[in-house]
Every structure is written in C-alpha cells, then in structure tokens.
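Anyone have tokens for Apoptosis inhibitor 5? Sequence:
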Amino acid sequence: MFLRCCIFLQIRIQAIRGFPLLGKDTEFVSKIADILGQLLTNEENVERDAVHKALMSLIRQDVKNVHWFLLFICTLYWPDSLQPLFKHVESGSEIREKIICFLRDKVFPLKAELLKPQAEMERFITDLIKKSVQDVTGSEFELFMGFLRSLSIFGDSAPRESFQELIEIIQAQADLDSQFNHSYPSFQVSDIDHIERWSSCMYMALPIFMRGASSSKFLNYFVKQIVPAFEKIPEEKKLDLLKTIAASSPYAVAQDSRQLLPSVVQLLKKYMPGKKAEDINHNYVECLLYTFHHLAHKTPNTTNSLCGYKIVTGQPSDRLGEDFSEHYKDFTERLTGTEETVRAASKRLTQGMADFNKAISSAKTEEEKTKIKSDQQTATRTMRSYNNILAMTHPLHMKSPSFIGDKKITLSWMEQPKKPAATTAGLKRSQPATNGNGPASKKGRGGMQNQLVNRAFEGLSHGGRGSGRGRGRGGRGRGRGWGGYR
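Reply: yep, here.
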C-alpha cells in the first residue's frame, strides 16, 4: 500500500512538472493556472513544492495572464460566492488562502525579475490589484498595499499624484460614502465594523499622508459621521479613534484643521472637568490635547471664537471685535481643573511606583512576576500621559498661546525616543524634553513618523474572515475581519 502511494505521488509530481509545457500555448494558460491553484492545497510537501515550481515557471512564461488569473481567484474564491467560477467550492476559502500565501512568499519577492518592462508591468499589476481588493480581509488588504508601496512607481521619488492614488485605494476600502443611522439609540454591529475599518484604513494611510497625500476625506468623514455618533460608540473603540486622529493631526492641512477644530474642542470640553475631579480619562485628554495643538498650530486664529483667545493674524477671521471672554473663562477653568486632577493622580501613582520592585522581588511564580511587570509598564505609560497633559495644558492659559506643532511631545502610547549616548568633554549637554520622555536628538526628531511607517501595516493584521459581507450596500461585500487599532 505504501509503495503504491509512493508510485502515485511520483506520477502526480511528474504530471505537475509537465503542466508548464502546455502553457506555451497562451490559450491554455488560465486553465493550467486554475488546476495548479487548486493543487496548492495538497498536504504533501514534495507535491506542493512541485506545484510552486510549476506555477513559477508558468508565471515566467506569461506574467500578465497568470498574475491576472491568480488574483482573480483571490477575488472570487469565497465559500459563499453566489456564482463560483471553479469547482470544489467547499475548499474555496483554503484555495484562496494558499494562493495568497504563494503570491506573498514566492511571487512578490521576485518582482524585479518578473515585472519587465518595469513601468508597464508595475502599472498593470497596480490596476489588477485595485480590482482585486474589493472583498478582502484586513490582513489581505495589508499584504496587497504593502506590495504596491514596494513598487518603484510609488517609491520615495514618485510624484505626489502616485501617493494620492494609494490614498484613493485605501479610501475606497474604508467606504467613506457610507452613513450611520444616528436615530438608533445604540450602534449596530455593522456600524462598529465600519468604525474599525475607518481606524485601520486611516492608520494605514499615515505614512502616505507624510509624503503629501491629502487626508481631507478621512477627516471630513470623522467630523460629519463619527463625531455626531461619538457617544454611542463602544468605549474600547473611542480610544482607537482618538489615537488615530491624534497620529494624523500633524499632517492635516490648514483648511482641514479649521474644519476639525470645533469637534476637537467640543470633545475636550466633555472630557476635561471644570473643577478638580477624582480622575479623568487621561488617554482621551492626551489624544485630544495633542490633536488640538497640531491643528491650532496650522490655523491659530480659529481658536479665538472657540476658546476666547486673542491671536492676531490680520485676517477678518480673527474676529477680534467680538466678545468670546466666556469661552476663554470656561476653557481655562477646564484646563486648571484638568491640571489639578492630573497632578493629584500623578502624585498617587508616583507613591505606588516604588512598590513594584518590592512586589517583583517577593513574587513566588513567573506568572506573578509577569503580571507585576505588565502593571509596572502600564503605570509608566500612565505617568508619561500625565506628563504630556501637563506639558500641553501649560501654554494654553495665555491669551495668545503658542501651539505645539513639532515633535516636542511624544504620545505616551508611542515608542519613546531613545536617550542619546553620554556626551563627551567639550560638547554641550542635551536639554531635557518638556514632557519627561527624555531628550530627542536631531536624528530622532522624526522618530514618530518612522514608528508610524513601521507600524502602519500592523493595524490591519487581525486576520480571520467574518461571516458577513461587510456592510453589504449595493452588494459590495467589503472586507472581512477588520481588526482595531493596536
């Protein structure tokens, strides 16, 4: 029996190796790719390797047709497709996943060899992927976008229009034309899924915003659709949204900043107490203050009517002849109440921080030590958040404040800039950072952007397929298993 199986295996492998020879006739390329694609699910490593080699040989013979066909399978091979193009629909999901893995591991790394002539083939593949991402999971969309960003037509020297094209692909995935039904007392499941999608797509777009692409549509959607429904959004999703807006605020243009600022001030007033309180949601306040500073830095006189400031730019929008003194009084009282609350909470936390090392020393098991260390890290991030809040509220008490528009503040949930090496004799010492996060060297000023570039595509890595077809408008089943911000 074993011998018979070995013989059958050798026969199948020989047959697989012969498939590319049939592909020399372009009429049969798609059919052969179909067969080989289904064979990717084979459990035998030797047979699967033969399939990989046969597919690669076929791709080298006819890159356009085979790429098109494989990506077409990726688009249509869902187990719940209404009209599957291929047989064995029960294993369609597995076939799709195997093909995507094959593209990721075997094909994409060889793009320099396969995509010739380069400009023509990169454009062909880009157009193909744009058609193929209509119904994908978050991790699959991440894979395809990562591949697109690796192409030379979207490289660092590419024109701004190229980056805008990438943004438009992400915007389409975010489905920014959809609307929430604000009449419902609570969010529907489909709405929560869409919030996750917006956060993930927005975060994925951050490295592209840094290169000059417009974030207007994302920010406009936040103002018109998300802010009016903010109270109904589950608490764990609110922080995702605020973190995303905070991370994107340095790249908003003045016009978008002017539109977004009223919503940010509205949320700030909600989460900053008018007098000293027991505690505040420091994560919300930190995100909102950071966003406020970066937006106001681009359009400072907008804050005159919102916060009662007296910033003079010489423009009619300064509105200096109007009385906004009540706004100023209310806003500064909230700043003071927030500061008093944060200082008291910071004092309590400082007293408790000393106990962590003692607790680790007395812990009896590794599990206990791990738990204590995790709590210690959380406390450290909280302290950074408190320090950031105090650093950002301090300048806002003035009638004509200076808004922070640089990298002086590193958000507590971002990786902190590393301290520079010890200075040698004769060199100036670095000045301490204002938020207690350590000095940032000249090289590290763009640290936050670098972290965003590195992490942007992690935001969609929550894999798994959902059971539904997204929000299902117009039969467009958009994406599955979209995870939230990490």
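Residues 75-92, 424-480 have pLDDT under 50 and may be disordered.
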